[in-house]
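[Backbone geometry]
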Amino acid sequence: MPRLSHTLLFASLLASSALAQAATPSYGEQLEGFDYPHPQQRFEFQSQGQTLSMAYMDVAAKGQANGRTVVLLHGKNFCGATWEQTITTLTDKGYRVIAPDQIGFCASSKPRGYQFSFNQLALNTQALLDKLGVSQATVVGHSMGGMLAARFAINHPQSVQQLVLVNPIGLEDWQAQGVPYASIDQLNQGELKANHESIKNYQLRFYYNGQWKPEYDHWVDMQVGLYHGKGREIVAWNQAQTADMLFTQPVIHEFGRIQAPTLLLIGGKDRTAPGANRAPKEVAERLGNYPELGRKAKALLAKGTLVEFPELGHSPQVEAPERFHQALLEGLAQQ
């Protein structure tokens, strides 16, 4: 009888494991199998001696167009698709919206041998806008996309009508603050360990201030599916390369060079600080203070406006879309 019980228990555990495995989404290297909210298009171009493909959505204004284009730049753990509600809100108000997936991310090419830099990603984005005939746009960047948007505004000022930074990371220089460097090989090993539990727990802590809603699961599945799919090795490698990029290429020291009118939208509960987990305790405790960082960033900007959401986290556009979009639309109307 004990043998039978052990056999049944083992079979039950195997069945539970199989069900959990089956429930874990698995997407292709370029996020094949994940449904985007609007048709994807492709921009093929040459960069660093290779042919690359940048996926993007180009969504026309609904009703009467207001003549303005908004470019949405995603964060490191996000994709163009994460802007779904923002795209709907903006196009309903007459804006044309372009939402690319940067090279190395989501539905775009995953090159192994590529020198990732914000300068390069900004150049790629400018090439896309040139191809689409967009001479000037409002550029909105969230998280890592905020670092990219700032670099884009510095390098390509003629293309930026207005800049919007949503909880941008990089409002402090972590390396200068004393966070130890981690090699790409070390970062890669950490990326390969990512799973549903670790990704959801990270988002719960930093993005949503410990309050989970069922609709957030969709974005966890999007990220988990990339790590779980056949392309997991190159996905993790590109993620490690871009983690190195954001750690070693701070842009906050150049905020004074940004001439475009800039709107900072800051969730005050955010404490995102890449590398804080490997920093000494006394260093980690002072990092990621977004209320303080947002105010300091505004002071550096020539034409800065700060809107704070004291009770929101790293992703206010997902956590409180109505409130966020009201502030965004009011900010865009000021231009």
Q: What stands out?
A: The chain has one domain: 29-333. The CA atoms of residues 15 and 21 lie 10 Å apart. Residues 2-23 form the longest helix (22 residues).
